[in-house]
Amino acid sequence: MCRSVMNSQKGRSFGAAFVLLQGVATALLPQLSVKFTKQMIGKNFDNASELEATPEYLRQVRAIGIGMVAAAGTDLLLQSTEESDSDSSGTDESDESEGQEN
Protein backbone atom coordinates (compact mmCIF):
# COMPACT_ATOMS: atom_id res chain seq x y z
CA MET A 1 0.00 0.00 0.00
CA CYS A 2 2.83 2.40 0.76
CA ARG A 3 4.27 1.90 -2.72
CA SER A 4 0.99 2.86 -4.43
CA VAL A 5 0.77 5.99 -2.29
CA MET A 6 4.30 6.99 -3.32
CA ASN A 7 3.53 6.41 -7.00
CA SER A 8 0.34 8.40 -6.61
CA GLN A 9 2.28 11.25 -5.00
CA LYS A 10 4.86 11.23 -7.79
CA GLY A 11 2.09 11.22 -10.38
CA ARG A 12 0.35 14.11 -8.67
CA SER A 13 3.60 16.07 -8.57
CA PHE A 14 4.29 15.32 -12.22
CA GLY A 15 0.76 16.38 -13.18
CA ALA A 16 1.03 19.64 -11.26
CA ALA A 17 4.42 20.40 -12.82
CA PHE A 18 3.02 19.70 -16.29
CA VAL A 19 0.05 22.03 -15.71
CA LEU A 20 2.44 24.67 -14.36
CA LEU A 21 4.58 24.53 -17.51
CA GLN A 22 1.53 24.51 -19.75
CA GLY A 23 0.15 27.54 -17.89
CA VAL A 24 3.43 29.43 -18.31
CA ALA A 25 3.43 28.68 -22.04
CA THR A 26 -0.22 29.69 -22.37
CA ALA A 27 0.27 32.91 -20.42
CA LEU A 28 3.38 33.95 -22.32
CA LEU A 29 2.44 32.68 -25.79
CA PRO A 30 -1.36 32.62 -26.19
CA GLN A 31 -0.93 32.46 -29.98
CA LEU A 32 0.32 28.87 -29.62
CA SER A 33 -2.89 27.96 -27.83
CA VAL A 34 -4.91 29.61 -30.60
CA LYS A 35 -2.96 27.68 -33.25
CA PHE A 36 -3.53 24.39 -31.41
CA THR A 37 -7.24 25.14 -30.99
CA LYS A 38 -7.56 25.92 -34.70
CA GLN A 39 -5.95 22.59 -35.57
CA MET A 40 -8.30 20.69 -33.26
CA ILE A 41 -11.39 22.51 -34.54
CA GLY A 42 -10.18 22.02 -38.12
CA LYS A 43 -10.52 18.25 -37.74
CA ASN A 44 -14.30 18.62 -37.41
CA PHE A 45 -15.19 21.88 -39.17
CA ASP A 46 -14.48 23.40 -42.57
CA ASN A 47 -12.53 26.66 -42.89
CA ALA A 48 -11.41 26.66 -39.25
CA SER A 49 -8.00 27.92 -40.36
CA GLU A 50 -9.64 31.17 -41.44
CA LEU A 51 -10.70 32.01 -37.88
CA GLU A 52 -8.92 34.93 -36.26
CA ALA A 53 -8.48 35.42 -32.53
CA THR A 54 -9.59 38.79 -31.19
CA PRO A 55 -7.48 40.67 -28.65
CA GLU A 56 -10.16 39.93 -26.04
CA TYR A 57 -9.81 36.20 -26.66
CA LEU A 58 -6.03 36.40 -26.33
CA ARG A 59 -6.45 38.19 -22.97
CA GLN A 60 -8.80 35.45 -21.81
CA VAL A 61 -6.34 32.75 -22.86
CA ARG A 62 -3.57 34.58 -20.97
CA ALA A 63 -5.80 34.75 -17.90
CA ILE A 64 -6.44 31.01 -18.12
CA GLY A 65 -2.68 30.43 -18.30
CA ILE A 66 -2.09 32.58 -15.24
CA GLY A 67 -4.81 30.68 -13.40
CA MET A 68 -3.17 27.39 -14.32
CA VAL A 69 0.16 28.64 -12.97
CA ALA A 70 -1.47 29.76 -9.73
CA ALA A 71 -3.39 26.51 -9.23
CA ALA A 72 -0.49 24.20 -10.06
CA GLY A 73 1.97 26.26 -8.02
CA THR A 74 -0.34 26.17 -5.03
CA ASP A 75 -0.75 22.40 -5.39
CA LEU A 76 3.02 21.89 -5.51
CA LEU A 77 3.49 24.09 -2.43
CA LEU A 78 0.80 22.19 -0.53
CA GLN A 79 2.38 18.88 -1.53
CA SER A 80 5.76 20.00 -0.20
CA THR A 81 4.08 21.11 3.03
CA GLU A 82 2.34 17.72 3.35
CA GLU A 83 5.64 15.91 2.80
CA SER A 84 7.44 17.96 5.45
CA ASP A 85 4.53 17.47 7.88
CA SER A 86 4.49 13.72 7.31
CA ASP A 87 8.28 13.52 7.67
CA SER A 88 8.22 15.38 10.96
CA SER A 89 5.23 13.40 12.31
CA GLY A 90 6.93 10.13 11.30
CA THR A 91 10.04 11.18 13.21
CA ASP A 92 7.97 12.15 16.26
CA GLU A 93 6.15 8.81 16.24
CA SER A 94 9.39 6.82 16.00
CA ASP A 95 10.90 8.87 18.84
CA GLU A 96 7.83 8.17 21.00
CA SER A 97 7.89 4.45 20.26
CA GLU A 98 11.60 4.26 21.10
CA GLY A 99 10.93 6.00 24.41
CA GLN A 100 8.18 3.51 25.29
CA GLU A 101 10.39 0.49 24.65
CA ASN A 102 13.03 1.60 27.19
Any chance you could write out the topology, listing elements then pairs?
Blueprint (H helix, E strand, L loop, with lengths): L1 H27 L1 H13 L12 H47 L1
Helix pairs in contact: 1-2, 1-3, 2-3
Question: Could you describe the 3D structure shown?
Answer:
The protein is mainly α and 102 residues long. Helices cover 85% and strands 0% of the residues. It has three helices and no strands. Helix 1 packs antiparallel against helix 3 (55-101). The longest helix is centred in the C-terminal third of the chain and has 47 residues, at 55-101. The mean pLDDT is 84.
What structural category characterises the helix and strand content? mainly alpha
SS element count, helices: 3
pLDDT below 50 for ≥5 consecutive residues: which ranges? none
Radius of gyration, Cα only, in angstroms?
22 Å
Q: Give the overall pLDDT as a whole number.
A: 84
Oligomer category:
single chain
Give the distance, in angstroms, between the N- and C-terminal Cα atoms. 30 Å
* Total beta strand runs: 0
Q: From N to C, what is the helix and strand string?
A: HHH
How would you describe the shape? elongated
Supply the key terms.
102 residues, mainly alpha
